[in-house]
Amino acid sequence: MPSSPGPVRAGSPALPAPRGDLSAALFRHWRAGGARALPPVADLDRTLAAVVDPLTDDDLHLALWAAYELHHHGFAGLADDLEWDGPTLAFRAALERTFEAALRAEIPAGDLDRDPREALVAVAARGGPPLAATVARSATRDQLREIAVHRSAYQLKEADPHTWVIPRLRGPARSALIEIQADEYGGGVPGAAHAELFALAMAELDLCADFGHYVDRLPGVTLATDNLIDLFGLHRRLRGAVVGHLALFEMCSVAPMSRYLAAATRLGGLPATERFYRVHVEVDDHHAQLALDELVGRLAHDEPDLAPDIVFGAEALARVEARFAAHVLHAWSRGRSSLRQPGEPPRPGPRQPGQKRDALDQPGVGPATRMRSRRVGSDRLRAADPTPLRTTVPVPTS
Ligand SMILES: [Fe+2]
Ligand SMILES: [Fe+2]
Predict the structure, then answer these.
(1) Which of 231, 220, 160 has its CA nearest to residue 194?
(2) Ligand 1 centre and the CA of 347: distance in Å?
(3) 249 alpha carbon to ligand 1 midpoint, in Å?
(4) What is the CATH number of the domain that holds 232?
(5) Which ligand is nearest to the Cα of residue 282, counting in written order?
(6) What SS3 class is residue 14?
(7) How much is the pTM?
(8) Closest ligand to residue 251's CA
(9) How confident is the model at residue 199, as a pLDDT?
(10) pLDDT at 10
(11) What digits encode the pLDDT tens for the residues 217-243?
(12) Which among 26, 27, 66, 21 is positioned nearest to 46, based on CA atoms?
């Protein structure tokens, strides 16, 4: 870190409130311009070893989200040079190791050895907790707003984390990715990027569309869905995973987006919100086929060593999305908001002496999450969703 801080970012979000030892140490370090030492890696690893569920932990995922945001928007009052601060990168790497290890531990090794195209179709067909179907059927305007707040962590920068991988691909796979991303950015038409359409939808829903405005309200289970893409996108060694992630993303878009569109139509008076969902309904059938045939198919052919990571990226996406959907449905089933409340203690909290690391034991995780954790896409969950699943490529994860 240079002794004199570089230019300070203007128009960036405020640094969120810390949620534990990890985020507190990182934010102190940044506020001191990188001059305040971070904990030694051994201490950090001890703290991380006490994390009950690295896939949802509030403190871990807030710290990781903030570390990634240095590459996107930065934070008000912090120097842009912190993006390449060595101690920050070492700290982030420890968080990433813990997150990635927990993801890999969820997926049986043999599952990664399948043909990537067949594996992605199978993952998509498993479905997930029926969040979108529930929204279509019965969500109130406040619940639709709640979904928008959750999704704002990613959707206000939609496509950006996947774009990291463009310079890391070659040939037909790269061309397919560029075609998909060009659509996500609205074909270069000002105001037509999906992130910009989402901002209009948020404003229409009487929400603040400033990036990062709601991060203090987002639980770790939500931040994990966003962190996953940057984890994959920012590491060349994981370029297969980001391809698998994007492909499943596109394959699982049309049906849930149709349901969110139906909810906005049912509630009425939400043309910008309808437009955001409709553009995905209109274009993602094509994206799904393109992603599966040209992006996944060609990459697996040209770089067969990446095939297991393509499957890993999709399996990881299915798991973090299932946890997110289960979290929201669990809160709603109890008449509660699924967002963090001001002053709410972090979840799941540090592991107690003698307590095993077990995602299934965490507080606030309901039966749906436990069921999903044991077998993603069980028939029982699928049966709970009244909307027929597609028989071709795209099938919803939520
Ligand atoms: Fe999009
Ligand atoms: Fe798309």
Answers:
(1) 160
(2) 30
(3) 9
(4) 1.20.910.10
(5) 2
(6) coil
(7) 0.86
(8) 2
(9) 97
(10) 46
(11) 999 999 999 999 999 999 999 999 999
(12) 21
The crossing angle, in degrees rounded to 10, of helices 220-233 and 58-72 is 40
Question: 100: CA distance to ligand 2 center in Å?
Answer: 25
> Does residue 192 fall inside a structural domain?
yes
- Same domain flag for 195 and 246: yes
DSSP secondary structure of 272-325: HHHHHHHHHHHHHHHHHHHIIIIIIHHHHHH-GGGHHHHHHHHHHHHHHHHHHH
* pLDDT tens-digit map of 153-185: 999 999 999 999 999 999 999 999 999 999 999
- Residue 13 counted as domain residue: no
Nearest ligand to the CA atom of 176: 2
Compute, in angstroms, the gap from residue 37 CA to the centroid of ligand 2: 42
Instruction: Identify the nearest ligand to the CA of 186 by its number.
Output: 1
Ramachandran quadrant class, 40 (left: phi over 0; alpha: psi -120 to 50; beta: rest): beta
Asked if the model's pLDDT at residue 256 lies above 80, the reply is yes
The per-residue pLDDT for range 133-157, each reduced to its tens digit, is: 999 999 999 999 999 999 999 999 9
Which pair of structure tokens corresponds to residue 240? 């297969």
Q: Indicate the number of domains in the chain.
A: 2
Closest ligand (CA of 185): 1
Q: If we measure between CA atoms, which residue out of 239, 260, 75, 67 comes closest to residue 168? A: 239
**Most trustworthy range by pLDDT among 49-53, 143-147, 346-350:** 143-147
User: Whole-angstrom Cα distance, residue 337 to residue 334?
Assistant: 9
What confidence category does residue 369 fall into, taking pLDDT thresholds of 50, 70 and 90? very low
If one counts every other C-beta atom within 10 angstroms of the C-beta of residue 8, the result is 15
Q: Tokens representing 134?
A: 């529930």
Residues around ion ligand 2, judged by CB within 5 A, are 250, 284, 287
| Same-domain check for residues 115 and 64 | no
> What domain range is 142 assigned to?
111-396
Give yes or no for residue 373 having a pLDDT over 50: no
Closest ligand (CA of 250): 2
> Which segment of 77-86, 103-112, 367-376 scores lowest on mean pLDDT?
367-376
Domain stop point among 80, 104, 128: 104
The CB density around residue 66, as the number of other CB atoms within 10 Å, is: 25
